[in-house]
C-alpha cells in the first residue's frame, strides 16, 4: 500500500499527490512501523514535495513531516537533509508578489520549528536570531484581515521556547524584537472590531 502511495505522491497530478499525502499522514499517525518505512524509503520524496507548487499538497507534506519529526531521532535526519532551509523559504513567503501562504501552512511551519528548537540544542538561539522573520508573519495581508488564533498561538509558543531560557540577553533580544509587534497587532485588531 505504501509504495503505490509514494508513486501517486510524487506524480504530476496535484490532486492525486495531495490525496496520497493525506493517506500517508493517516497511516503514519497511527502505525509506528509505517513511520520507519517512510523514513527509510520516502525521505527524499517528502523533501521534494516541500517545493510549494500547490498549497494543499504543501500543507499535507508539512503535516506528514510533523508526524515523522515527532520521533526526536528523525529531526536530526531531516536537518541533515536541509529541511530547515526549506522551512525558512516557506516562512519567507511565496515567490509570487502579493501571494502568501495560508495561516494553516504557516501554523504547521511554526510547529515544525518548535519541534526543532525543543529537541536540538544547537538551534536554541535560532528564534532570537530570526525574530524579525517570525514577526513579519503578522504583516502578511489576509483576505479576512485577521490572523488565525492557531497561528498566533504557535508564534507565541515559538517565542516562549526561548523565554524558558535563563540567559537574560536572549530574553531581552526576543522581548525587544517581539513585544512591539505583538502590541501593535493587538491594537490594530481591537480597532477593527
List the keywords:
12 helices
Task: Summarize the structure in words.
Helix content is 73%, strand content 0%. The termini are far apart. Helix 1 packs antiparallel against helix 2 (14-30), helix 2 packs parallel to helix 5 and helix 5 (55-68) runs parallel beside helix 8 (103-119). The chain contains 12 helices and no strands. It has 193 residues and is mostly helical. The mean pLDDT is 81. The relative contact order is 0.09. The radius of gyration is 18 Å and the shape is globular.
Question: Concise description?
Answer:
By secondary structure, the protein is mostly helical. It is built from twelve helices and no strands. Helix content is 73%, strand content 0%.
Residue windows where pLDDT falls under 50 for at least 5 positions:
none
Alpha-carbon distance between the two ends:
50 Å
Shape: globular
Residue share in β-strands: under 5%
Q: What about the largest sheet?
A: none
How many DSSP helices?
12
Mean pLDDT: 81
Instruction: Count the E strands.
Output: 0
Evaluate the radius of gyration.
18 Å
Order of helices and strands: HHHHHHHHHHHH
Q: How helical, in percent, are the residues?
A: over 70%
Structural class: mainly alpha
Amino acid at each position: 500500500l505504501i509504495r503505490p502511495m509514494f508513486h501517486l505522491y510524487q506524480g504530476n497530478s496535484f490532486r492525486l499527490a495531495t490525496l496520497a499525502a493525506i493517506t500517508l499522514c493517516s497511516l503514519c499517525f497511527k502505525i509506528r512501523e509505517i513511520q520507519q518505512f517512510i523514513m527509510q524509503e520516502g525521505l527524499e520524496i517528502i523533501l521534494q514535495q516541500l517545493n510549494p507548487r500547490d498549497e494543499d499538497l504543501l500543507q499535507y507534506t508539512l503535516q506528514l513531516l510533523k508526524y515523522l519529526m515527532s520521533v526526536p531521532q528523525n529531526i536530526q535526519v531531516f536537518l541533515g537533509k536541509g529541511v530547515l532551509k526549506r522551512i525558512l523559504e516557506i516562512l519567507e513567503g511565496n515567490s509570487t508578489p502579493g501571494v502568501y501562504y495560508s495561516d494553516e501552512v504557516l501554523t504547521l511551519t511554526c510547529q515544525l520549528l518548535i519541534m526543532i528548537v525543543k529537541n536540538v540544542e544547537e538551534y536554541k538561539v535560532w528564534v532570537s536570531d530570526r525574530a524579525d522573520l517570525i514577526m513579519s508573519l503578522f504583516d502578511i495581508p489576509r483576505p479576512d484581515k485577521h490572523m488565525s488564533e492557531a497561528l498566533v498561538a504557535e508564534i507565541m509558543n515559538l517565542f516562549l521556547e526561548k523565554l524558558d531560557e535563563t540567559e537574560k540577553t536572549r530574553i531581552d533580544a526576543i522581548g525587544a524584537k517581539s513585544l512591539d509587534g505583538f502590541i501593535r497587532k493587538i491594537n490594530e485588531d481591537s480597532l477593527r472590531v
